[in-house]
């Protein structure tokens, strides 16, 4: 508690200094950015090179070359083609030529947006006339920044600019606006309203974002690049949500696009990129548990030249924790730079550096006193059973990469993405190991883990459209490479004596630690993939195939063990979507995944990769104006070749006959019901089952998988006053429900369900007084009633309380 009370004034002064520095930086850059904005407004003619072909991809290229946001409903452009456009002309002339003969019209609702309109022929009293039905899609295109909660497209699923309604697989998108509106302070919090996504180890861990979907863990990509993942789950990057533009949650097997992966899917995190329009933002935030945070985000052209664009995002945070002695510190900086010498070529270089220090609220306590009764009473949620003089978690992480794009004269497009991700973790902890018969005293263990990992990824693909007969093809050919290095060293020893959980005494000298684990691993993957998105009338068939060659070498020095792995894998996806005129789109798909496994069989041979397959069917809906989107899907996933240690200690090795099956259905709806009222609703039913077991674990057959709730539901409503005395005020609230689950494979430790409430209030000061334009205040609260619940149990010795109430007030100024 000494740190909690002793450093508050120091943190307050640091926060004020940070806020002052941010204001000074903003003022110094303001004049240059305004000048750049005026220069951009005078630009009229551009060079266009858009080949003939399907209208949808042509509109996407027009938006890139015109530096405009193109808004339209995918169903409006479905089945339509364009003769293309080439040469130097104004954006208005280019879009007019592009839409010639399509029966569509256009309008410019503002200087940065062109809206496509569907023309409806009517007959008036004076004869034939034409009325235009304006399309005002709330999202701002298929990729990148999006206004509101609804994104119309995602690159993640197909590595092409495909509208979500045309993807034969479910993708849940969390936009920048949703992250801010719900006050999400981590990726885990940002995905709370996505159906079927649950925290793999509970929701109170401020160290890592470990998520599950459809019964299985999910891996994470950053800008399409695989983040490190180790056998001991210790070296993870934790991405700061303030630096993100969007979060794409791809459900189900995704190996055909990204190689080795788990069948639950993956999460792709897209960082903020440079913008052609100036963007300047500073903010300060405070909250409960002594939270103090300063942020800034600047972007725009350099010197008024659109060929050179920059973005710089930063954050500094200092906070206490819910538990005694808890704290969290973070420093984050993310620069990015784009060079676009012409309309067909661009190079964006981006990166980030982040440093974290914490004693997390995620602490292990016995089930007796948390989940189960204890004769001595209930263990408080603030109890810290560790040793504050010894414990702590430190992480240093970074990434750097580039995204290169070029469009050839024949319309084919080349893209290459290279990224290097690195992380080092030093964690010291004092978990409880045993509880005495009185259930009052615990035996503690002093531990230290040193983890390091890095990945290097490079992905090169070429994409083009052509027509054979009546079928239009969007062909993607690609090659990627992944190299992963991971290491983990672990030491531990028992503390002398016992620890009184109900009258804790701290200051015990930690014992000398004994080395337990010394693990090293190197893995490489080379993949070649091909995808064809075939369009015939209102049918879209997506067929994908991929071949991988994987090589891995690992060692465990303490046991003198070495493992080598060489294998190839073939994965694929086949799916179909039918676009109906009323906005509905039934779909069906089959996809597979593989994930290499370290170790050897009892006979000394290599283990097979774990293999997953999914069958999914459902229907999607998108309204003509893009203000309503719905997806309903049902699926079955099977994971094969699950391993377990050989129960025969003489023979050793791993058995590999386990299998798990998950069935369920999911519903997600996002809608702007009126100009003032928005909605997010989701529901997931998940039925998991162990269908085959390894030798010695037959008793697990028929059990549920760990941390897979049967039911999950969420509802979020957002209402903004646009007129009257409350103009500028925005009220939002949500409710989340998660059903029961089991914390152990034996299904003996049941974690009960819980219902939690969230809320948010914001006010735009400039809505009624132009003098304060750009100034907003937002107050958010999660688990508003501060409900106490157990979020996860690993065993009867280790249970973890769920996240308590978090309150945050953010004052932001944009200009």
Outline the structure in words:
With 815 residues, the chain is mainly beta. It has 8 helices and 46 strands. It has a 22-stranded antiparallel beta barrel. The chain has a 5-stranded mixed sheet with strand order 11-17-18-15-16. Strand 20 and strand 21 form a beta hairpin. Helix 3 packs antiparallel against helix 5.
Kindly state the number of beta strands.
46
Helix content: under 10%
Q: Rounded to an integer, what's the Rg over CA atoms?
A: 27 Å
Work out the helix count: 8
Q: What profile does the largest beta sheet have?
A: 22 strands, antiparallel, barrel
Q: What structural category characterises the helix and strand content?
A: mainly beta
Distance between the termini: 41 Å
| % residues in beta strands | over 45%
Unreliable parts: 1-43, 120-141
Shape: globular
Q: What is the mean predicted local confidence, pLDDT? A: 87
Give a short summary of the structure.
It is found in: Cell outer membrane. The protein is built from eight helices and 46 strands. The protein has 815 residues and is mostly beta strands.
Topology record:
Layout: H1 2-6, H2 8-41, E1 46-50, E2 53-54, H3 55-66, E3 69-71, H4 74-77, E4 81-82, E5 85-89, H5 91-98, E6 104-110, E7 113-124, E8 127-133, E9 153-154, E10 162-163, E11 171-175, H6 176-181, H7 187-190, E12 197-199, E13 211-213, E14 216-217, E15 219-222, E16 225-226, E17 244-251, H8 255-258, E18 265-271, E19 279-287, E20 291-302, E21 305-320, E22 327-342, E23 345-359, E24 392-407, E25 413-429, E26 432-435, E27 441-468, E28 471-494, E29 499-500, E30 514-536, E31 539-556, E32 561-578, E33 584-595, E34 610-622, E35 628-645, E36 654-672, E37 677-692, E38 711-720, E39 729-738, E40 741-742, E41 750-751, E42 754-764, E43 775-782, E44 790-795, E45 798-801, E46 806-814
Membrane topology: Multi-pass membrane protein
Family: Belongs to the TonB-dependent receptor family.
Pfam families: Plug, STN, TonB_dep_Rec_b-barrel
């Amino acid at each position: 508690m000494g740190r909690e009370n002793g450093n508050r004034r120091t943190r307050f002064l640091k926060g004020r200094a940070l806020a002052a520095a941010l204001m000074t930086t903003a003022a110094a850059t303001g004049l240059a950015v305004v000048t750049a904005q005026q220069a951009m407004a005078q630009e009229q003619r551009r060079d266009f090179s858009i080949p003939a072909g399907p209208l949808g991809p042509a509109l996407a290229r027009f938006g890139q070359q015109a530096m405009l946001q193109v808004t339209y409903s995918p169903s409006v452009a479905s089945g339509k083609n364009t003769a293309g456009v080439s040469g130097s002309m104004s954006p208005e002339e280019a879009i007019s030529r592009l839409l010639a003969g399509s029966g569509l019209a256009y309008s410019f609702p503002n200087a940065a947006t062109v809206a496509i309109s569907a023309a409806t022929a009517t007959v008036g009293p004076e004869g034939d006339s034409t009325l235009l039905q304006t399309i005002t899609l709330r999202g701002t295109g298929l990729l990148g920044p999006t206004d509101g909660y609804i994104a119309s497209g995602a690159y993640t699923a197909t590595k092409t600019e495909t509208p979500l309604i045309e993807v034969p697989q479910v993708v849940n998108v969390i936009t920048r606006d949703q992250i801010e509106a719900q006050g999400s302070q981590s990726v885990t919090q940002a995905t709370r309203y996505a159906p079927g996504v649950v925290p793999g180890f509970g929701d109170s861990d401020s160290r890592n974002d470990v998520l599950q979907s459809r019964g299985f863990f999910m891996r994470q990509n950053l800008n399409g690049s695989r983040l490190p993942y180790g056998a001991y789950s210790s070296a993870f990057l934790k991405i700061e949500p303030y630096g993100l533009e969007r979060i794409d949650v791809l459900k189900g097997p995704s190996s055909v696009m990204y190689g080795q992966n788990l069948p639950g899917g993956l999460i792709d995190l897209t960082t903020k990129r440079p913008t052609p329009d100036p963007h300047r933002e500073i903010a300060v935030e405070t909250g409960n548990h002594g939270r103090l945070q300063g942020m800034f985000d600047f972007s725009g052209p350099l010197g008024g030249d659109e060929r050179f664009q920059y973005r710089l995002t930063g954050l500094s945070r200092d906070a206490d924790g819910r538990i005694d002695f808890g704290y969290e510190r973070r420093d984050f900086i993310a620069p990015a730079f784009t060079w676009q010498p012409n309309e067909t070529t661009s190079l964006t270089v981006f990166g980030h550096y982040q440093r974290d220090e914490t004693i997390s609220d995620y602490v292990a306590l016995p089930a007796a006193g948390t989940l189960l009764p204890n004769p001595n009473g209930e263990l408080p949620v603030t109890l810290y059973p560790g040793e504050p003089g010894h414990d702590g978690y430190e992480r240093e992480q970074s990434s750097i990469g580039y995204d290169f794009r070029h469009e050839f004269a024949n319309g084919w497009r080349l893209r290459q993405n290279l990224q290097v991700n690195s992380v080092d973790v030093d964690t010291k902890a004092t978990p409880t190991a045993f509880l005495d018969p009185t259930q009052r005293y615990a035996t503690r263990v002093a531990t230290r883990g040193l983890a390091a990992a890095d990945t290097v990824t490079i992905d090169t693909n070429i994409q083009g459209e052509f027509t054979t007969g009546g079928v239009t093809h969007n062909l993607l050919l690609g090659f990627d490479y992944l190299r992963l290095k991971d290491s983990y060293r672990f030491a531990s020893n028992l503390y002398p004596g016992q620890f009184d959980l109900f009258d804790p005494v701290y200051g015990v000298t930690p014992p000398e630690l004994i080395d337990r684990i010394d693990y090293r691993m190197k893995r490489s993957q080379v993949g070649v993939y091909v995808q064809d998105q075939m369009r015939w009338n209102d049918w879209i068939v997506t067929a994908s195939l991929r071949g991988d060659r994987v090589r891995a070498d690992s060692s465990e020095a303490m046991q003198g063990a070495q493992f080598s792995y060489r294998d190839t894998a073939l994965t694929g996806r086949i799916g179909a979507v039918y676009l109906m005129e009323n906005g509905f789109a039934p779909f069906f798909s089959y996809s597979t995944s593989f994930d290499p496994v370290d170790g050897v069989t009892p006979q000394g041979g290599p283990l097979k990769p774990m293999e997953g397959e999914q069958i999914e069917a459902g229907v999607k809906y998108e309204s003509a104006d893009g203000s309503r989107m719905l997806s309903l899907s049902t699926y079955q996933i099977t994971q094969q070749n699950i391993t377990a240690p050989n129960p025969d200690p003489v023979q050793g090795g791993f058995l590999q006959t386990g299998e798990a099956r998950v069935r369920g259905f999911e519903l997600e709806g996002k809608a702007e019901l009126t100009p003032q009222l928005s909605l997010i609703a989701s529901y997931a039913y998940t039925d998991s089952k162990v269908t085959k077991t390894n030798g010695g674990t037959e008793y697990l057959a028929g059990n549920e998988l760990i941390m897979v709730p049967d039911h999950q539901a969420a509802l979020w409503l957002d209402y903004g006053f646009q007129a009257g005395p409350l103009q500028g005020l925005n009220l939002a609230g949500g409710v989340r429900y998660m059903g029961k689950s089991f914390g152990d494979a034996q299904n003996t430790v049941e974690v009960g369900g819980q219902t939690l409430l969230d809320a948010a209030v914001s006010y735009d000061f400039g809505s009624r007084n132009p003098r304060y334009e750009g100034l907003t205040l937002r107050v958010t609260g999660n688990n508003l009633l501060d409900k106490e619940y157990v979020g996860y149990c690993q065993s009867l010795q280790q249970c973890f309380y769920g996240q308590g109430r978090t309150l945050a007030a953010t004052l932001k100024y944009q200009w």
